Each structure stands twice: as C-alpha cells, then as structure tokens.
Amino acid sequence: MRMDDVDQLIIGPAQKGLPADSAELSVRALLDRGPHLSDLTTPLLTLDGPGMDANVAVLGRYCAAHGLALAPHGKTTMAPQLWRLQLEAGAWGITVANPAQLAVAQLAQVPRVQLANTLADPHGIALAQSMTADGQEVVSWVDSPAAVRRLQEHLDPTGPQLDVLVELGAPGGRTGARSAAIALEIAHAVQASAVLRLRGVAGYEGALAHDRSDAGLAAVTAYLTTMTELYVRLAEDGLLDPLARAGVDGILTAGGSAYFDLVAEAFADVPARLPGDAPQTLLMLRSGAYIVHDDGFYRGISPLRDEESAAAAGGQRLRSAMHGWARVLSRPEPGLALLDAGKRDLPFDEGLPEAQRVQRGFGAPVRELPGARVTAMNDQHTFLEVPADADLEIGDVVRLGLSHPCTAFDKWRLIPVIDDADAADPALTGLVRTWF
C-alpha cells in the first residue's frame, strides 16, 4: 500500500476520536458507513477538506504569479496524503527536517526532497546518498566548514555526490553561517569536495521576527537582501558554473509561512542580476503551515491572512482548515467550564485555542458563545472562562479555533477530514494518517 493511500489501512484499536467498533475496519469501510462527527467521540481534531484544497490552490497561484517554486515543509503535517496533494498541485518537492522525516519521504517516494538542516548523523548521511543513488533528488544544507568535513567523512566516495546548499544565518537567529564571508568559505569548501555539489543558498527568516512590526519586517528584509547578494556572488565567482554545465538548476530558498511576501519581493530581481553563464535558478519557498493555516499565529502574521492584506500581497486569503472539538465536562463555578480536550490533543505553544461556537451536541443548532475565553490548558482539560449566566451545559460541544499547525498534527495518528466545519454535524470524508 502506498503511504499516501490509506483506504485499505486497518484502523486498529484505540484511535482517538474514532468509533469503538471501527478497530477492525479499513478506512474505506468506515467511510462507506457515511459517518458524521456525531458518530465520533470528543476530544477531536478535524481538517476541513475544501479549506485545504482552497489553501493549496491559493498558494499555488501566488507562487506562479511571483515566479516562485514551492517545496512545502512536510514537518508541518508529516502526512504523505497531504504531501501528494501539494505535489499534484505543482510543488517542486517536499522539505523535511531530520533523518527520520527523510526516511518517510523515501518510503513515500517523494521525487525531490530538501532537508532543511545540516546532516550530522551518519545514518542520515548514508540515507541521503542512498536515496540519491536510487533516483530521488535530495538537497541538504551545510552551515560550517566542520559540517562539510563531517559529510566528507561519512559519504561513500564511490557513490553519487550529495547536493548541498550553504545556509546563511544571522546573529541571534537559529542555525546558519553568521556572515556572508563565512558562507563563502563554506561554498569554496563544498566546491573543493569530491563528494559534494554546491546547489545554492538557503536560509530561514522566521527566526528573526515574530510579528509584522516595522522592526520585525526590517530585520527580515535585511536578512533576505544579504541572502540574495550571497547567491549572486556565488554565481559571479563561478562557484555555480558546474551546475550550468550539467544543466542543473541552482536553488535560492527561504520562506516559512509568515513572511513569504518579503521573500518574493527580495528574490524578484535575482535572475536579472546573474551573469549570463549562470545556471537556471529556482527561487524557492518552503512554506508548510499554509495548507491548514490557523486561527491564531498565522492568522495574525501571514501575508494572506485577510482580504486586505492578501490584496496588498498580490494574492487571495488563506482560511483556517483545522479545528478542535471538545465537550463541557464540568461547570464547577458560575464563570468556569472545563472541556475534555487538553495539551495532549490540541496545540498551545503559539497561543491558546479560542472558543468559536457551541451547540447542545452535534446536529443541534449552532450558536455563538460571547465572552468565552480559554485561559489555561492541562494535559486533558481546557479551562474556559465564561460569563456567569452563560447558557452552557454538561455535554455541550464547543468548536475551538487553533493556533500553530506544526504542533497540532503530531498529537494524532488518524485525523478526520470533514466536508464543512461550519455545518451542525459535518460529514466525514477521509482520514489523514500522520507519520511522526
């Protein structure tokens, strides 16, 4: 069975949220029953199928309009089903972060994989070279001469070369060479290596800011400018000439899901600045969270967060395609309700969930819950502050807006996909399997 085809997967026992009698059923057999959320148990995390389709199309059009390739970060979902959706929509490949995720990409037969990190583990290095030998295109990062030496020590000199990108960082950032001068030193070390091939420059701007303040945007823009100057310098110095002779694309890549508009702007004039004999260059985003977006961090910071900002960025808005569902377990005080979802079920690291609506149960009329606010989460409980006279009873179902997809998917092995998160009792249209 292909990793992105779970129809024949046997659900197995004790899958969170799924009916107790589904353990021996295949995914297809369960879906053929025509289940709705009312057939499932809370707490739940759901994905909105039409919302994901729309988000994939939105970013695809954005990239096409700005001349950008896309290698979405697979760590967000670790779901080959969703990777396939992204690839079929035109993504260049999938990005991963470590050898375990690289192994999933190998098994999922992803044709092109970018490992957005330095490979230091010897087994991971061997895996990357093995995948290259088997015809999968693998591109990794290096951020120091020591990292280059580490790769040289563990790559098989009789095997294929491993493609690498020089990672440029910034003071106070995450990994990456702390100056263009060090990055150039790394590039020369790669070019001199018999087991490595220099493909270009990589970086991550998201570690330099956490909002859209003037200072944050300025820091990101300055960093991206340095990245482009470094890539042009590599081309001018002939360090990318072997790519041109081999007919292989160079790569300049940045862009999480928060500042890809700044990446598009900074990268736009790079092709015109390259010497005539430079290789064709892929200007590449790695945005991953966009496929489900959110009702928290990315809703506040994404360039496509609403109609106004999307229009300014030259695109259409993204929409949240993930939600939490939890029941009221207790009303121990007039202004407090305890819900049956907690940190084991829903993300909390980039903001607590928000209460969006309530109903007596799935299928019952939906109503707003004014004045409700999540104040804290324990492992299995959410504290919901409500007005003392709130119409909220034991067993009521609260839909929660969530923040940060990257720490939502890892809490679930099979995630229900629904047809309409705004319906009173959404129908189940699929199950997404994660590989964390």
TrEMBL record:
InterPro entries: D-amino_acid_metab_enzyme (IPR051466), D-ser_dehydrat-like_dom (IPR026956), D-ser_dehydrat-like_sf (IPR042208), PLP-binding_barrel (IPR029066). Gene3D superfamilies: Alanine racemase (3.20.20.10), D-serine dehydratase-like domain (2.40.37.20). Transmembrane segments: none annotated. It comes from the Bacteria. Residues 321-419 form the D-serine dehydratase-like domain. This is Amino acid deaminase. It comes from Brachybacterium hainanense.
